[in-house]
Write a structure and sequence with these properties.
The protein is mainly alpha-helical. Helices cover about 70% and strands about 5% of the residues. InterPro entries: DNA-bd_dom_put_sf (IPR009061), MerR-type_HTH_dom (IPR000551), MerR_fam (IPR047057), TipA-like_antibiotic-bd (IPR036244), TipAS_dom (IPR012925).
């Protein structure tokens, strides 16, 4: 089922103008646009919109929300768990401030006496640890820069890049039974290193090594990479470490 922009606005309780703005900045692009010009939103669009509105309620700027949603390691279920923790924390702070306000009114009316400590109970300026976790997990600026570069490519250029990506992964998959230190493996890993640097921003050798570690530490990366061949993520991780170490010595 697809929904028109007015239907989504009425369903969710946001303005049509807001939805148009999300589309303009590339935060939420409708799945389909009809010849008549009507934007059509899919079920997946609604799921993304829910995420946007939760993060917005929690005080995240739209630019940061876009960065997180575009992060390759973004996981909606993990985000929902974090959003729930942030909202529970926010609810606790609000409940505490309401209690402080009630006590302050009673203090002003002479019913109770408040200490200075009680007067400011619940008013916090420290950041929410779960918010910091969300920003750290998905708010990498380098990802935002990479997405900017990708969005600047034409469809033909994006298709060409996708084919290069696919070719390198298939080549590495065919080599995964060899030693990661082998000449062929290192040549293929250099192709991967060059593709990343030419298309996704500047990767230092340390960042490249760290990316390889993420391939085996984050099960979502492992699962996606191992679609090309079981054990490929571990092979690439080790080959990337070998490559970075060799380049540092040269």
């Amino acid at each position: 089922m697809k929904w028109k922009v007015k239907e989504v606005a009425e369903l969710v309780g946001v303005s049509v103008r807001a939805l148009h703005h999300y589309d303009e900045i590339g935060l939420l692009t409708p799945t389909e646009t009809m010849e008549s010009g009507y934007r059509l939103y899919s079920e997946e669009n609604l799921e993304t919109l829910q995420q946007i509105l939760f993060f917005k309620e929690l005080g995240f700027p739209l630019k940061e929300i876009k960065t997180m949603l575009n992060n390759p390691s973004y996981d909606r279920k993990e985000a929902l768990v974090l959003q729930r923790k942030m909202l529970v924390e926010k609810r606790g702070r609000i409940d505490q401030m309401i209690e402080t306000i009630d006590k302050t009114i009673k203090h002003m009316e002479g019913e109770i006496h408040m200490t200075n400590e009680e007067r400011f109970k619940g008013i916090q300026f420290t950041s929410n640890p779960y918010e910091e976790e969300a920003r750290k997990r998905w708010g990498n600026e380098s990802v935002d820069e990479a997405n900017k570069k990708l969005q600047s490519l034409t469809k033909d250029e994006q298709h060409e890049l996708s084919e290069k990506w696919d070719t390198i992964f298939k080549k590495l998959a065919s080599l995964r039974k060899q030693s990661p230190e082998s000449e062929e493996a290192q040549a293929a890993i250099k192709e991967w290193y060059d593709l990343l640097n030419n298309n996704f921003g500047q990767y230092t050798l340390e960042a490249f090594r760290g990316l390889g570690q993420m391939y085996i530490q984050d099960e979502r990366f492992t699962k996606n990479i191992d679609q090309y061949g079981e054990g490929l993520a571990a092979f690439m991780s080790e080959a990337m470490t070998v490559f970075a170490n060799k380049q540092n010595k040269s």
